[in-house]
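Sequence, structure tokens passed on for absentees:
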Amino acid sequence: MPQISDQSDGEPPSRRGRPPGPICDSVGVTHRTWLEQVRRRLAASGLTLDDLVSRSGYSKTRLSELLRGKGYYPGWAMTYSVVKVLDIPPWPLRRLWTAAAREAEKKDTWIKNGIHAVQPLGPEDPPIPHLAFKQAMDRPYTAYAQAFLQTEARARRVVAETFDILWLNWKEATSSSNTPRHAWNLLRAKVMARADTHAGHPDLRAAALRTVAVAGSNDLDDCLARAARMAAFFDAVARLPEDQMDVTVLRFLCGVDEDAVPGVIGLPPAITHSLARHARGALHGLHPGTHPDTLE
């Protein structure tokens, strides 16, 4: 693996040349996600575009377009050449690249051919603490994402993307004062970037159809009436401040145990319980007559 800095110890990395231009506005959400990771690594490495040219074997024009998301979606061979130079873990980056290729409407044969044209990546070897964190948070993260994105497939894609970004930035995540909070903020941002909106806030009305209160009714008229009440209630939930909304959604839409919620969102139990109390009070003001307890 080539060294990423030619400077002697104690000297700052060279900043020769211009940094790449901004990412194009037309870039898709997942494409932007992995581009941001690559650009961060490039900025931290001290390498210039000329350095990437000499070490990757691709022209400056093509690499500049790749780093900006300009033109055609880049093939895996060129992307991997940059990943390898910057010493980025290839497995999570390749998954993000694949998801973004599908987002860009690339055919599966194009994706598979691109991957097969590059040498095998070797064994996947995530940090053990990251693997343990992923196993612990997969279910509540997926349930939360599905509340806003409706389908389990969409939810799992966003959760997988979140865990891959965490892997790429695991040192940063674990060096923060609160790794679960760092991860939760990342998940929420990724979910909200894809969630439908209604009147300027996330649209949770469809989640009403999955509540126990609605599902437990055998009478059609009663079911429709309950669905309307729950839709209005969850519309009010979506207008709460972010942390109050998160606690309410996890507790009463996702079925996460009250004592487990603090560990999921990375906040102390006392703060979490306070958020729940404030949420109840706000919901009573926004939508009197419907309370979280009616969901169970």
Observations:
- Strands lie at 197-198, 201-202.
- Confidence is low (pLDDT under 50) at residues 1-15.
- The two ends are 56 Å apart (CA to CA).
